[in-house]
Design a protein that fits this description.
The protein is an all-alpha fold and about 120 residues long. It contains four helices and no strands.
């Protein structure tokens, strides 16, 4: 995926996170508030990280973005009433986010590790 595309999707992700956080702060009740808050925090942090990381390491950025999306959206659908078993998907997003950070750590040792040429 091109760097510009990653940054564009990260911007949409950040906007979604802000909307989810606002929904959680002003409309949601009960456990839904915590799920929305947690999803929004992780999604927003990783959207910003993708904007910073994408120009240097697109694989890491893509893992972070995919992981944050899966993680946050699984919590968002739980907050909207999905069955509790749907929460089993959440850790998959967490693993992808961790993978993105580890790929970045390994890629920082060499400019050629983890990059994709256009």
């Amino acid at each position: 995926m091109k760097c510009e595309t990653l940054i564009r999707v990260a911007a949409y992700s950040a906007a979604t996170a802000i909307g989810a956080g606002a929904f959680g702060a002003h409309i949601a009740r009960g456990q839904a508030v915590d799920w929305l808050h947690t999803g929004a925090i992780y999604q927003l942090i990783h959207a910003v990280a993708v904007v910073v990381v994408a120009p240097r390491n697109r694989i890491s950025a893509a893992l972070m973005l995919a992981g944050a999306t899966v993680f946050a959206f699984s919590l968002y659908v739980l907050a909207l009433g999905a069955p509790r078993w749907f929460g089993a998907i959440t850790p998959l997003g967490g693993v992808a986010m961790i993978g993105g950070w580890l790929w970045l750590a390994l890629g920082s040792r060499s400019a050629s590790v983890g990059t994709i040429d256009d």
